[in-house]
Structures are given as C-alpha cells and as structure tokens.
Amino acid sequence: MKKLALGLTALALFVSAPALSKPKKGKKGAEETPAAEAPAEAATPAEPATPAEPAEPAKQFTAEEDVDPALMAAISYRHAQMKLAGGHMKSIKLVVKGHEAGKDEVLAHATALASIAQGIGNHWPAGSGHETGIEDMSAKAEVWTDAEGFAAAIAQFQEATAALKTAAEGGDMAAVGEALGAVGQSCGDCHDKFSD
To answer: Are 154 and 120 in contact (CB under 8 A)?
Structure first.
C-alpha cells in the first residue's frame, strides 16, 4: 500500500510540476544557454531600474510523511479526476467555439465527463481535508460539515453532465454549448462553497 501511495504522490507531483526545459546542445555537444530576452523598456540612467517582484512559486502537491496512505490515494485520485474533468470540458468548449477537427470527439469527452461525475463523490473520505497537512489542499471543511449540501452539489454536477452527454449524442453544437454552460455553473457553484 505504501508503494501505491508513493506512486500516486509521485504521479501527482509529476502532473502538477511546471514543464522543464532541457538545455540545447551546440554543434560539439556543449550545452548552450538561451540568450535572455531584451526587456521591453530599458531603464534610463535618470530612472534606476526597480527589481521585479519574484513570481509566486507554483502550487505543489506535497504530503506529510505521516498521512495515511489510503487518504493519500483518495486525495491523489480526486485531484487527478478534477484535472481530467477540466480537460474534457476545455476540449468540448474548443469544439463549440469552432474547432471542427474535434467535432467527432465531443461525445467521447461528454461521456467521460459524465462517468467522472458519477464517481466523484466517492473520493472525499473523512480526514482527507486540511487536517492532513498537505499544502495544496483546496477542499474546505464544509465538504464534511455540510455533507448534505455537498451531496446536492455533486448531484447537480451529475445531472448537468448527463444532460451534456445527451446533447452531445444529438450532435447540435448549440445545444452542447448550452449544456456545457450548465456543467460549468455546477462546477462554479460547488467550488464557491466547498473549495478554497
């Protein structure tokens, strides 16, 4: 079980890590560093340049060693499912906005999204919130303290994704767009109340 939790943690780190760029190899195999881009405006001698504020580091999914492996697995899995749901929604939105090449795949995306919705409520075991000490935890305590409200939000998401799948089966992109809007609304409603 520890290997599974470690593997899921590594997967979560990989999925959430920013893209890494490799140095380019020169003619003789030596590494070359890309030249820095010129600033948009050069500072004049009369105006000293002010240092730019450092960018906020990317949120990393980090777990404390003492987190129960079963909880880590549930947390990692639900994070992965949320990312998948967002990817399917974005793909459908692109087609609705005119990306013709993906038109034949809308039903597959809608079906996958509806499938994710059917199981998403199963991945919120008690104790898998902020109390784990995981830095990247966005689930509010209300997920567990208002279980009835959270179940209603999950049901709204499930209904909206089922309607999206039905619209996709019909092939009318205007209807798909409208149904996708309802899915987005259900996501927003849930995140407003149950996510940081």
So the answer is: yes
Terminal Cα-to-Cα distance of the chain (whole angstroms): 29
Q: Which residues of 37-51 are buried (b: 16+ CB within 10 A; e: fewer)?
A: eeeeeeeeeeeeeee
Q: Please state the pTM of the whole predicted model.
A: 0.66
Tell me the domains of the chain and their CATH numbers: 65-194 (1.20.120.10)
DSSP letters of the chain?
-HHHHHHHHHHHHHHHSPPP-PPEE-TTS-EEPPPPPPPSSPPPTTSPPPPPPPPPPPP-----TTS-HHHHHHHHHHHHHHHHHHHHHHHHHHHHTT-GGGGGGHHHHHHHHHHHHHHGGGS--TT-SGGG--TT--B-THHHHTHHHHHHHHHHHHHHHHHHHHHHHHT-HHHHHHHHHHHHHHHHHHHHHHB-
Can you read off the two tokens belonging to residue 123?
Answer: 């991945």
Confidence of residue 54 (pLDDT cuts 50, 70, 90): low
* pLDDT attached to residue 55: 54
Please, is 98 exposed, middle or buried when counting C-beta atoms within 10 Å of its C-beta (0-12, 13-18, 19+)?
A: exposed
- Compute how many other C-beta atoms are within 10 angstroms of the C-beta atom of residue 167: 23
